[in-house]
């Protein structure tokens, strides 16, 4: 049940300011995004149209705290179908970014940010890997890329995820 | 000789060496030179969901490295292709240039980003590739899996048809193998939701494994390391969850292409495939 007394009318403008969120106001709720979504095909708990509709209505807490927001695979099937030309996957991503800013970041992503800070890559390159690479004739790869930590510092992402 | 900067990303150099090895060895056959990108990092895609700007800057730094080398980028992973293409477009539009410059990065020369498979299709071409086929893989029928970020979003790529893709099928068919037409060709592997809900991700992967089985495919052909994680590494999980026995080999496209070029199975790293493609090898000449 939606109670508009709890709505925050500024929410949609906040999303529109985010990277990729600008075009949310064009949505007229046709549901083509949901109809073309491979995740929704298997799990009805994820519904991009519902997320966008709730955002337009201003149901900020409900949207930001929803675990299903994170079910979007960013596959862009919705983007290709949207009759309004909204890059829907980028829009859902903008809502995710805003959720993170408001303290809702799934643990897995926090770990990824930490790994990037530490190594500049997600998978550790162990000596075993380097030996294996050498054995089959592949060139070595950098074990760490410290410049990535500088980028994370510059954008303040570590504070955003609470690290 | 065509020359490219080879972008490896995170997964390929440690978890898909057979993809890298087969890509490098088939490229050699085609007179393509890959130059390694010293100091290249993660592409940025994984944390786009956390903060798009950070992801774009990480991607742009990688582009900066190739730009200084004066070379266009070839990628092996679909998501790396999307993230780097995204940043490349933003660099052209000067969108986040201020922070990019403040970090000391430069973009002296405009470059392009292409997936290895798109590079083969556009820069080499089906006809020329066909001429290099020495051992046509005529007995094989396979499921070609495009993966989402090979052709979507179309505003970023402007390549192939995002609704009815065909370029990869053509590339598979030129090896002599038959690329089967099937429903849900552009279905997502589920890789992007693996970290959020494993059960859902495995259900998504199972869908295509099931299609492969009902079409009696000899293999699924992949062009993305994360799609392979879903279809090969997690195949056992799908089998357990759905009480099935697929035993479906998952080959990277350059492995298939390399075999059709007559490369030895070691040169395309077959022994690193988790689901042993023994039957497939027998079918194409008992290597």
UniProtKB/TrEMBL annotation, chain A:
SUPFAM superfamilies: alpha-helical ferredoxin. GO terms for cellular component: plasma membrane. PROSITE patterns: 4FE4S_FER_1. GO terms for molecular function: 4 iron, 4 sulfur cluster binding; metal ion binding; oxidoreductase activity. Residues 26-85 form the 4Fe-4S ferredoxin-type domain. Pfam families: Fer4_9. InterPro entries: 4Fe4S_Fe-S-bd (IPR017896), 4Fe4S_Fe_S_CS (IPR017900), HdrC_iron-sulfur_subunit (IPR051460), Helical_ferredxn (IPR009051). Keywords: 4Fe-4S, Iron, Iron-sulfur, Metal-binding, Oxidoreductase. This is 4Fe-4S dicluster domain-containing protein. It comes from candidate division WOR-3 bacterium.
TrEMBL record, chain B:
Residues 4-84, 143-230 form the Cysteine-rich domain. InterPro entries: Cys_rich_dom (IPR004017), HdrB/HdrD_reductase (IPR051278). Pfam families: CCG. The keyword Oxidoreductase applies. It comes from the Bacteria. GO terms for molecular function: oxidoreductase activity. Keywords: Oxidoreductase. The keyword Protein biosynthesis does not apply. This is CoB--CoM heterodisulfide reductase subunit B. It comes from candidate division WOR-3 bacterium.
